[in-house]
TrEMBL record:
Protein known as: DUF4037 domain-containing protein
Highest taxon, organism lineage: Bacteria
Compositional bias annotation for Polar residues: 329-341
Species assigned in the record: Bombiscardovia apis
Keyword Repeat applies: yes
The UniProt record lists the keyword Repeat: yes
Domain annotation DUF4037: ranges: 486-589
Alphabetic keyword roster: Repeat, TPR repeat
Region called Disordered, residue ranges: 1-23, 329-358
Cross-referenced Pfam families: DUF4037, TPR_12
Length: 691
């Protein structure tokens, strides 16, 4: 079951300002920095209909102005907002410098012992956690807890936010009980400090977070313990909805998260009809407030489809959420089950088994068998082993379907160990992994292709460096100052090394290694963008037309192929692999392009549809004879339309390069844009520059 959880409890409530921001207005008449005006202007951007992309320029300009004004307090205010912005955009590498800068500035200002120091520590820790830097994040959170005892009142909501965020770190690193404990503490603080906890949205959000954390904790427990935890999760999920109903807050966009959480708890308890009703209502709210192209819509739609299918198989009818919400969500004879499947794994026939992707099956199999095995047999290592599914295969991208299940598919997952741990327990752990049940939820046993066996295995136990070397040839990502090594790595190879999902990584070692491969140096990215522009212009704007004029349909067809591959790669590169990943293996190129093109903030999102149109036109344009087409017009009209579509794609690319500040030229032939792009390359390494 895909997760649509609640956002962190907000540490600052934006001021409501009418109208869109048009020009910075945070400088006072005497040239000083006006923090209040700055925050109002930032809120205006977020509250307006204009793109939030405008916020970055605003924030960076404010950083410069606060620094020029010599206002350290104002500078720290802006830095905290930048950290939150980059975190929300997944710009984790950019955030590292901002986080370090905020901590150094706060120390320079001697803020230790103040609530400003506590807030800075919380913001820095949350940014580190979002970047997968779990050790550093935990250290900062613990510093914040010590500081909070001195600087915050026991009922201060920032303290509740701190415990809420710390719970997320524990959950993300496989320490579910500690995560639950932190959420209980947060809920106590919020309930005690709220003037009306029965109508308090922060209280509601924490109830939902606690419900989902209890479900995660239930995995691998005894049936009796599972039942107890499931019942408690149901109580918290139901209380969330009662708070929204009591305060008549159902129009709030966050109500969708509350409904989704309630649906997940119902599903885990086998109450599929109730889950479907909750997801249906959540989907309507998401469509209204975020649009049907949003990630949240896709996740909730997937969950709804699974719930409807499960309800039909169980003979349950859909039950809509209303004012009679009770505590029965999550209650089941078999206890909590956090996977999108019946609670008796392995008992289903193929005709009865739930429809699942490989990633969903892998996560469920890990929760049901893998995690309990580690807890039982390797208690001293369970907090050191990472688990997930990453690598070669359509299931690692989430692109698999029923056709994909004939090979390299079935109940399985990866376990990643440090070199010292692998030397100590690797062989025995692999044997224990292979001893796990081979059939699960009606799937299996896994059928491994010839290319996925022995040293080339795709699942099982791996040493972290060995795993990445088997995919890329490198035990770790090339250094940022080794551009020639980065250029040797095909994008499809990098895609295989950075895809999939990580279910647990207590040490953060695997996540960090995977993130390093996603952090392509900007110089390399600009060099590749330049190369792609060269191929786009040569294949699409030059050789396609000449080949068609010669009547060489085969050459024209190959020109379209090269044009399409170059444009697709450019879309991923312009959006930055750190955010959207890399262009996958050719078979899944369009699956990947369609996926990122459906995201709200993706640049050049309209290009995907145009490329598919170009491919549809190519047959008639390249091989249509005089009598081909309606009315015997031949291929002529199709050729004209094809060339027009190619040129329109090039115009979209040019407009995006200009909008990104990568070029100031209006030259339509994209080959001539390459010097402008390469001017952004700071290194003089010849491998990065065209001749």
């Amino acid at each position: 079951m895909a997760d649509l959880g609640n956002d962190d409890i907000q540490e600052r409530t934006p001021t409501q300002v009418s109208g869109a921001h048009s020009a910075p207005s945070y400088l006072g008449a005497d040239g000083s920095f006006d923090s209040k005006a700055f925050l109002q202007g930032l809120d205006a951007i977020f509250d307006s209909s204009q793109s939030n992309d405008n916020a970055e320029d605003y924030l960076l300009q404010a950083l410069a102005d606060a620094e020029n004004a010599g206002d350290d307090a104002g500078l720290l205010t802006v830095l905290n907002e930048v950290i939150g912005y980059y975190r929300s955009r997944g710009r984790h590498q950019d955030n590292m410098w901002m986080i370090q800068r905020s901590l150094e500035l706060a120390a320079k200002m001697q803020l230790q012992g103040t609530d400003a120091w506590t807030t800075t520590l919380i913001n820095a820790a949350t940014g580190m956690r979002a970047a997968g830097q779990y050790d550093q994040a935990e250290d900062l959170y613990k510093q914040a807890l010590r500081s909070a005892k001195q600087t915050l009142e026991p009922g201060d909501r920032r303290l509740a936010a701190l415990h809420n965020n710390l719970s997320m770190l524990y959950s993300e690193t496989g320490r579910d009980q500690q995560g639950v404990d932190e959420l209980r503490h947060a809920l106590e603080i919020l309930t005690a400090s709220s003037p009306d906890p029965e109508r308090d949205l922060d209280v509601a959000s924490t109830h939902t977070n606690l419900a989902l954390a209890l479900l995660a904790l239930a995995g691998g427990k005894s049936p009796e313990k599972q039942s107890t935890l499931a019942n408690e999760a149901g109580e918290h999920a139901a209380q969330t909805l009662r708070i929204y109903q009591a305060g008549h807050l159902q129009s709030n966009p966050h109500y969708a998260s509350a409904l989704a959480g309630y649906g997940q708890v119902c599903f885990a308890g086998g109450q599929f009809g109730k889950a479907a009703g909750a997801y249906q209502e959540a989907l309507g709210i998401i469509a209204r407030d975020y649009g049907s192209a949003s990630d949240s819509y896709a996740v909730t739609k997937e969950n709804l489809d699974q719930a409807l299918q499960a309800a039909q198989q169980a003979g349950q009818s859909v039950e809509l959420v209303d004012a009679s919400v009770d505590n029965s969500a999550g209650q089941s004879n078999v206890g909590a089950n956090t996977s999108p499947a019946p609670s008796t794994p392995g008992a289903e026939s193929k005709s009865e088994r739930p429809k699942m992707t490989g990633l969903q099956l892998s996560r469920a199999y890990w929760e049901q068998y893998g995690k309990p095995m580690l807890e039982k047999k390797y208690p001293e290592y369970v907090t050191r082993i990472a688990a997930g599914l990453v690598g070669h295969g359509s299931e690692c991208y989430g692109f698999d379907d029923e056709i994909s299940q004939d090979h390299d598919f079935g109940p399985s997952f990866c376990l990643w160990l440090t070199s010292e741990d692998y030397a100590a327990i690797g062989s025995q752990l692999q044997a224990d992994y292979e001893a796990l049940p081979q059939e699960f939820m009606g799937y299996g046993p896994r059928e491994n292709s010839v290319r996925a066996q022995g040293a080339s295995k795709r699942v099982g136990v791996f040493e972290i460096g060995d795993f990445f070397q088997s995919i890329t040839g490198y035990r770790q990502a090339p250094a940022q100052d080794k551009p020639h090594e980065w250029l040797l790595l095909p994008e499809a190879t990098l895609a295989a090394a950075t895809n999939g999902e990580v279910f647990a990584d207590p040490l953060g070692r695997f996540l960090q290694a995977r993130q390093d491969f996603r952090t392509m140096p900007d110089d390399v990215r600009f060099a590749l963008i330049s190369q792609r522009l060269g191929m786009i212009s040569q294949a699409g704007q030059y050789n396609l037309g000449r080949s068609l004029q010669r009547g060489d349909g085969a050459a024209a067809w190959l020109s379209i192929d090269e044009f399409t591959k170059a444009v697709t790669s450019l879309v991923f590169l312009v959006n930055n692999p750190l955010t959207v990943g890399y262009t996958p293996y050719y078979k899944w190129t369009f699956a990947g392009l369609r996926t990122i093109s459906g995201w709200m903030a993706t640049r050049l999102s309209q290009v995907c549809g145009k490329l598919e149109t170009i491919l549809q036109l190519s047959s008639a344009a390249c091989f249509g004879s005089a009598g081909f087409g309606e009315g015997g017009k031949g291929a002529g009209p199709t050729v004209e339309r094809l060339e027009a579509e190619v040129e329109e794609v090039c115009q979209l690319i040019l407009a995006e390069l200009q909008a990104e500040g990568l070029t100031t030229s209006n030259e339509n032939f994209l080959e001539w844009q390459r010097p402008y792009i390469e001017a952004h390359i700071s290194s003089d390494d010849p491998s990065l520059h065209s001749i």
